[in-house]
Amino acid sequence: MKYLTTALLILSLASCSKRLSQAFVASDIDHFWQAYDMITQTNDTILQQQYLDNFFIGKATAGQLEIMEARNYTSAGYLQAINSYPLFWNSIRANTQKYLSQQKEITRNIQKLKKAYPDLKPSTIYFTIGVLRTNGTTMGNHVLIGNELAFGDDNTIINELPEWRQPFFQTFKPLENLGLLCTHEYLHTQQKEMVHNLLSICLYEGIAEYISCKVTGKKSSTPSIQFGKDNVDIVVSQFVQDLYLIDNNFNWLWGENRNQLKVRDLGYFIGYEIAERYYNQAADKRKVIKDLIELDYNNESAVESLVDASGLLPKPLLEIFNEYESSRPVVVNISEFENGSKMVSPTTKRVTVNFSEALNGHNTGLDFGPLGQDFYPKVDNNTRQWSSDNKSYSFEVALIPKQRYQMVISNFRRTDGIRLKSFLIDFETDSLATD
C-alpha cells in the first residue's frame, strides 16, 4: 500500500473557515499500519517486537504517547491484539485512514463551539491507534482519538473481540458520531480539572455532552441520555441512593452497568439533564454556556448551586447529604478503655471496637492518625476478627508504657454500602505498675 505522506504532517483546515484553523495530527495511523504489515508477516515474537518499536512506537507523536499513557497501553498489549484479532484489524483498516474526509465536519463543529463560547482555547486533535480501551480522551490541550474504536461502523468485524467490547460498536455507531465525539473531547480540554466524586464526574461528562449536542444540533449517541429522559424518576431515585456510596463511580460511568438499572453510562444523563435544565432556565444563554464550561469542581458551593438550581434532584443537595450523614453507622465505644484516656494499661492486649449496628463483616480499615506512623500501635494483623454478629471488630496490639497512640477506624460499611463514620482512636498508656 502507498502510505499517505500528508499523514506525516500536522494538518490544518484553515481554508474551511476564516475564523478557525484547526490542527490535526494523523501520522500515527500510517506508522501503525506499516508496523502491522511487518508484524503479521512473521511468527517470530522478537521480530514482531522490533517492528512495533521501530515502525510505530519509536515514531510516535506526542498524542500517541499520551493515549498510551492514559490507557496503560503496552507493547505486549498491541502485539496481543494484533495477533488475536486479524479479522477485526482487516475490517477496520480502511476506516482508520478516513481521517482526512472527517476533518471538515469536525472543524465545523469546533467552529460552532467557538461561536457559542468565544473564549475557546485551541486544542490539537490527534488521530491515534490504541488497544480498544477508548475511542477518545484528552491530556492537557490535546484531544486523543483512538481510531480503532472511533472509526468503527456496521462493516467492522467484532466477533473476535472480547464480549465486553463488542456492544460498543453495535450501540454507539462510532464513525457516524465521530464529529460529536471530537466536540465532546474538545470541551474537556476547556474544562477545569475534574474532582473524583460521583456527582462531579457526572457533571464533567454530562456538561461536555450537553454543550456538544447543543452547539452542533446533534442528538447524543449515548443511549443512556434517552433512557434517563424516559425514566427520569427511577434514575434520579437510584442516583440519590448511590450518590455518597464508596467505590461506585463505575456503576454510573465509563462503560459499566453495575447499577440496579443495568444501563451503562447513566451518569452522563445526570450531568446532561442538570446542564440542560440549568440552561433552559437562564435568560443569558451565552453566559450559561461559559459558566457550565468553566465550572470549578473544587468549589463545592458552585457545584451545589448549579445542581440545586437545575431542580433535577428531589431535595437540595445539602439536605440529601445531611440525610446520608445521619444514616451512617458510628463507633459506639471501645470495650477495653475509654477513648481519649491517658491512663490505658500498657498490658492491654486486645482492642475491641463496637459499632452502632451490624456491618457487612468484610470491609475494614485501620489507618494512621493525624500524628502519623510513629504513633500507630503495633497491631498483629493475623488476629483481626469480627464478632459473630458483625457489631464489633477486634485485634491484638503490643503497647509500651508512657506512649501516645492514634489510629483511624475507616472503610467499614453496612451491607448496603453506607460507610461507617471515620473514628479516631486516641489514647495514652500509663506507667507499668510496680510492686
Tell me what the structure shows.
The protein has 435 residues and is α+β, with helices and mostly antiparallel strands. It is 41% helix and 14% strand. It has 16 helices and twelve strands. The chain has helices at 27-39, 45-56, 62-70, 75-84, 86-96, 99-116, 147-150, 166-172, 178-188, 198-216, 223-230, 232-242, 266-281, 285-293, 300-310, 317-327; strands at residues 10-12, 23-25, 124-128, 136-139, 142-146, 331-334, 350-355, 366-368, 378-386, 392-398, 404-409, 423-428. The strands form three sheets. Strands 1-2-3-5-4 form a five-stranded mixed β-sheet, with helices on both faces. Strands 6-7-10-9 form a four-stranded antiparallel β-sheet, with no helix packed on it. Helix 6 (99-116) crosses helix 10. It is globular and about 80 Å long. It starts with 9 loop residues before the first strand and ends in a 7-residue tail after the last strand. Residues 1-18 have low confidence and may be disordered.
Helices and strands in order, then pairings?
Elements: E1 10-12, E2 23-25, H1 27-39, H2 45-56, H3 62-70, H4 75-84, H5 86-96, H6 99-116, E3 124-128, E4 136-139, E5 142-146, H7 147-150, H8 166-172, H9 178-188, H10 198-216, H11 223-230, H12 232-242, H13 266-281, H14 285-293, H15 300-310, H16 317-327, E6 331-334, E7 350-355, E8 366-368, E9 378-386, E10 392-398, E11 404-409, E12 423-428
Parallel strand pairs: 2-3, 3-5
Antiparallel strand pairs: 1-2, 4-5, 6-7, 7-10, 8-11, 9-10, 11-12
Helix pairs in contact: 1-2, 2-4, 6-9, 6-10, 9-10, 10-13, 11-13, 13-14, 13-15
